[in-house]
């Protein structure tokens, strides 16, 4: 747009632009181009849909593999948050979830750094799971129970180690094999296997 009328805003603007260094004009053009690209990327359905689908598929593959790994060893099951949840649900059907709850409480107890909290937590765990007639008494022998009781006098992060190990062995030898044979886990493995087959057929 051009105008030769004195005081015309368009003329002032043109003169102003003419006095700008060429690098400023180039930067302005470059900025405009970049903004255009960013706006294009943020449009609904542009790449984000594909990305979220890929992430979802990846999560499904991970969870499927995880389910199959639980049967490799009891350690593998306990390392998995989802595995612990599934195992806990199974133990509830056998009315023996206190064994896993005790094991988890001991794992949490070991992370305690404060000596005051260590002592109070130790007493609470002992009263809930270990002592005779405890509300959620775990199945350990009398000798282990007495050793644990004595450990409370000078509570350390290791005072439940023996009782926890006995409970873990009981779960590994007794409950864990039944969990692997349970209908709920068999269903999970079938679903995981079918996802693996579906994945291979699409590659």
UniProtKB/TrEMBL annotation:
<keyword id="KW-0343">GTPase activation</keyword>
<keyword id="KW-0597">Phosphoprotein</keyword>
<dbReference type="Pfam" id="PF00615">
    <property type="entry name" value="RGS"/>
</dbReference>
<feature type="domain" description="RGS">
    <location>
        <begin position="73"/>
        <end position="189"/>
    </location>
</feature>
<keyword id="KW-0734">Signal transduction inhibitor</keyword>
<protein>
    <recommendedName>
        <fullName>Regulator of G-protein signaling 16</fullName>
    </recommendedName>
</protein>
<keyword id="KW-0564">Palmitate</keyword>
<dbReference type="InterPro" id="IPR016137">
    <property type="entry name" value="RGS"/>
</dbReference>
<dbReference type="InterPro" id="IPR044926">
    <property type="entry name" value="RGS_subdomain_2"/>
</dbReference>
<dbReference type="InterPro" id="IPR036305">
    <property type="entry name" value="RGS_sf"/>
</dbReference>
<dbReference type="GO" id="GO:0009968">
    <property type="term" value="P:negative regulation of signal transduction"/>
</dbReference>
<keyword id="KW-0449">Lipoprotein</keyword>
<dbReference type="InterPro" id="IPR024066">
    <property type="entry name" value="RGS_subdom1/3"/>
</dbReference>
<dbReference type="GO" id="GO:0016020">
    <property type="term" value="C:membrane"/>
</dbReference>
<dbReference type="GO" id="GO:0005096">
    <property type="term" value="F:GTPase activator activity"/>
</dbReference>
<comment type="function">
    <text>Regulates G protein-coupled receptor signaling cascades. Inhibits signal transduction by increasing the GTPase activity of G protein alpha subunits, thereby driving them into their inactive GDP-bound form. Plays an important role in the phototransduction cascade by regulating the lifetime and effective concentration of activated transducin alpha. May regulate extra and intracellular mitogenic signals.</text>
</comment>
<keyword id="KW-0472">Membrane</keyword>
